[in-house]
Amino acid sequence: MHLQLRSIAKRFGAILAVDGVDLDVDGGEVLALLGENGAGKSTLMKLLYGVHRPDAGQVTIDGRATRIDSPRDAMASGIGMVFQQFSVIPALTVRENLALAHASTPWFTGRGARRATAGLAPLAAIAPDVPMDARVSSLSVGQMQLVELAKALQQDPRLLILDEPTAVLGDDEVRRLWSLIRGFATRGLAVVLITHKLADVAACADRVAVMRRGRVVASGAARDFDATRLLRTMVGERDLAAPSTAPLPADAPTRVWIRGLSARGPGSRIDGVDLRIARGEVLGIAGVSGHGQDVLADACAGVLSPDAGEVIVDGETLFAPRQRAPRAGRVAYIPEQPIRNAVAPDLPLALNLHLDRLHTLPAIPDRRRMEADARALLTRFDVRPADPTMAAGRLSGGNLQKLVAARELCGAPALVVASHPTMGLDLAASAFLYHQLFALAQAGSAVLWISEDLDDLLHHAHRIAVLHRGRIAGVVPADQRHRQTIGAWMTGHADAEAA
Amino acid sequence: MSGGTVDRARAMAAPLGRPALAAAAFVVLAAAFFAVIGRNPLSMIGVVLEAAAGDSYAIGESLVRATPILLCALATALPARVGLISVGAEGQFYAGAIAGTGTVLSMLPTPGWTMLPLMLVTGALGGMALSLLAGLLRTGLQVNETISTLLTNYVAALLVTWLVYGPWKSPASQGWPATVEFPAAAKLPALFDSRVHAGLLIGIALAVVLHLVLTRSRWGLVLDVLRSNPRAGLVAGLDFRRNALIVMALGGALAGLAGIAETASIQGRLQSDIAGGAGFSGFLVAWLARNHCLRIIPLSLLVGALLASGDGLQMFAQVPSSVTLVIQGLLFVAVLLVNGWLDRKRPG
Amino acid sequence: MTTFDIVLGSFLVSALRSATPLVFVLVGETLVQRTGSINLGVEGQMLVGAMAGYGAAALWGDPWLGLVAGAVAGMLLSSVHGLLTLAARANQFASGLAVWMLGFGLSAYYGAGLVGRKIEGFGTWRGAGPDSVPVLGPIVAGMTPTVLLALVVAPAVAWWFWRTRTGLVWRAVGESPEAARAAGLRPIRVRLQAILLGGLLSGLGGAALSVDHTRTWAEGMTAGRGLVAVGLVIVARWNPWWVLPTALLFGGAEALALRLQTADAGVSAHLLLTLPYITSLAVLTLTCLRDRGQAAPAGLRAVMDR
């Protein structure tokens, strides 16, 4: 298989997501496609898999121009894809998910698709321990990904695309995946590995291609790129002063006490979480996604009423069962996925910036004043375009994140709850946001920071607590020496702590 | 279809405007229907216009039909401000008629000046009660409000039938199932020496007031946020349940008002089937107006005129009045087609 | 054979006969909702089905042709919903109501000449052999072809839905159209097929109502049965296996209302007629109380929760 992309372009609204990309992939090699969030790597591969259609450009497979309008076409051309947001269906069983797409599934499948056996071989080969008749929703994230991978392999693809496959896995699972990927290449498959982790490159890439702002800015043999060069290429020639947190004085008094907090949300829960955050402290919450992070964030911000326990801020109970004080001004909250959780997409930016303090406005709000306030905030947090009358839904992902940060971080809150606050931001914008966050900590706020990026947490937080199955598996100072322990806690191996 | 085609069509549509495009689609569909039933579309459109607005009587009848539609459209638009799709105006209309009639009957031997205001208030409360039932089911138990309001419509209509055949049947009306004639004290003042009554003015005034409240006040902003993204509203500490109940209650009150005003001032007594689809026409108008309270005023006049033309059609063109129901449905289809097509989001 | 047997048996028969039109509609709407859409237009599709079915039966004198005509009419009207929601991506609730209005108007217009006409209906087996068997006897004797058809269609569809590849594809589309598309399926096409099949079944249900159950045509005669079906899909938890028992709930309420009416229990007929709607709303509420909406296909939740 030889795949050639020439001048591929795709525009979403005002944003040129992919801007004239040329790329070549050959059978038997692993190409690591690198870039920051929003660089266009996922979009490029979704264009290749027919999820989106390119506005311009040409795809050539083995010398033949190929038109790919849907995933169906892509599969027919021998392309398979493992999505970052899985495409397995949680309500169906593993067997049903695999039977769904396989060409030789019989018309009569029997109950739970038990008569459909043809598509099961790839899964049995890569993960014999996954229960075939369990609903996908009951599997762990790592198992789900293996099912997703098996589903792509069923079609016997000649090119396999994996979108950030290691982002959600624990260390052991990552190693298993690396060896699988190497195995695919040995068997002659072409593999495109989308990632932003340098470890992935070192472990299994033959070639790398780096994207920035929708363009491929560098490519070549993986051995020619060391970590520094890769990072430099991904980020560009900007000088990034790494923001950092000030050291925490040993006698910093407790400002926030999350006391025995239990709460249930859709799909996950937390159970007896007990954490104290000192004045000026940045407490990182690490953990594999889906272990109660969203519930913890919601409960600490007073959005979700807890079943037990309380959130005590400056000695006063703000949130407890059947008790909810208004959070505006005291608790700032940057939830994950701002477009879903934190903004009203078809309403103007000015209104979105006042969302958490609507009740403090006069009964007949003065629009002009709202817009003037908004314009100042937009400029300060570098939201582009800084037009207070524009609908929030028209902002790009990164600017949306900055919009929410502008609203939540502009005051002097006692507690800041930030859930994946830099997701979708490029490094410069991330640095700016960290700067704002840590400046608040320095000014005395207590910061609860949830992230899946252990490197970031180790680098910036004061302490790290690990959330596993809704409970705190342990708390350690943020120090590289504790990396092993944290990893063990994240995957539920509590005994590794003693070792 | 490629993004480019949609963009170009959108650019073309922008100066024309949505209403013009929708109107064009509607005329095409209606003309096609007339052609299918073997009538000359042009002459039929002439007959419709004549029957809807040909003389002062026709205009009066159009306004009479428009009055309950206007109030029912507002009753639909209000819940829609928080994203609720209530189709209960028809049932709330009946509930209002029942409650208001109850007040009139209980005060009957000695009607005083208090009768009219009390009747209107209890009528509004009746509609409000039925609407709140659906609101509570939705906010408390997540019962879909569209389905529950559709079901309660039938219950309310049957309750009216039961009352006028049974407990409230006037002995004087012999075979005809209806209550006694309402006294003059229960009637809203008539306008321009016609059957048009002050309910029309009340409706227009309410539409203007609601428009101002919804677009200028803080509460309007709260509703906008809850509609745009309930989850963001929750994160911002806004109370979806309370606000959903308030708009459902107010909406129900408006439809209830429509019901008792129609009963007292047009029919003069309670009888079966008085709503005659006004609730559903109101839903259509709210959708045409995209829940914009000011736009509801002219659009309900338009739909009222269309329905009023049915009688004229029967008389002058020997076409069954049910043709207007088809035309009304085609109007809805045309608007959904045009709006849906213009709003379709780009993939991704 | 005791009087009790006869009473119970004949009550079951009337419940079953009341439920029959609803079974078809409910099966169809279950499939529609299972693939992730909702169609309130079934009420209008039933009406045109009832009108076309009655008209065909009156014209050609054959009730079977009536059923076929009704099914075709229902399917034709449902294509409007397909066009509006899938091609123009209009709001599903609004589109359903538009289809309802259109169906109401069309059936009233074309059905005006049918009011008061007589048709030749299906025969029953009443008076034949099985009468002597307790409870079951009267049931079998009261059967008509549409009742039997309903008793066959519901389990057949359920079997197809849970045991075949196309059923699996339809379930996948309802859970996640994006995932189904990524797996190489065509969600829009599946949804259109479901809407058209739903239209066919609701038209058949309407025809079963006018041609067999009531043997009359009247404007708006379905009286909300289609809308009841939309709600009862939730009660049946989107599972075709549950369609029969759920439809019997409505049929039972209607049969009870009629029974009390003829027994002159001192309650007004009009009040009793509210029974099916109140029953439906009550069981719907109980279902929602228990499930909290979690039983719905994920793709449908996206439509319902807005």
Descriptive report:
- The complex is a heterotrimer of chains A (499), B (348) and C (306).
- With 499 residues, chain A is α/β, with parallel strands linked by helices.
- Chain A has two domains: 234 residues, Rossmann fold (3-Layer(aba) Sandwich); 244 residues, Rossmann fold.
- Chain A contains 16 helices and 21 strands.
- In chain A, the strands form four sheets. Chain A has a six-stranded mixed beta sheet with strand order 6-7-8-3-9-10, with helices on both faces. In chain A, strands 17-18-19-13-20-21 form a six-stranded mixed beta sheet, with helices on both faces. In chain A, strands 12-11-14-15-16 form a five-stranded antiparallel beta sheet, with helices on one face.
- In chain A, strand 4 and strand 5 form a beta hairpin.
- Chain A is globular.
- The mean pLDDT of chain B is 87.
- Chain B is built from 14 helices and no strands.
- Chain B has one domain: ABC transporter involved in vitamin B12 uptake, BtuC.
- Chain C has one domain: ABC transporter involved in vitamin B12 uptake, BtuC (Orthogonal Bundle), CATH 1.10.3470.
- Chain C is built from 14 helices and no strands.
- Chain C is globular.
- In chain C, 59% of the residues are buried.
- The mean pLDDT of chain C is 87.
- Chains A and B meet through loops of A and helix 9 and helix 10 of B.
TL;DR of this structure?
The complex is a heterotrimer of chains A (499), B (348) and C (306). Chain B has 348 residues and is mainly α.
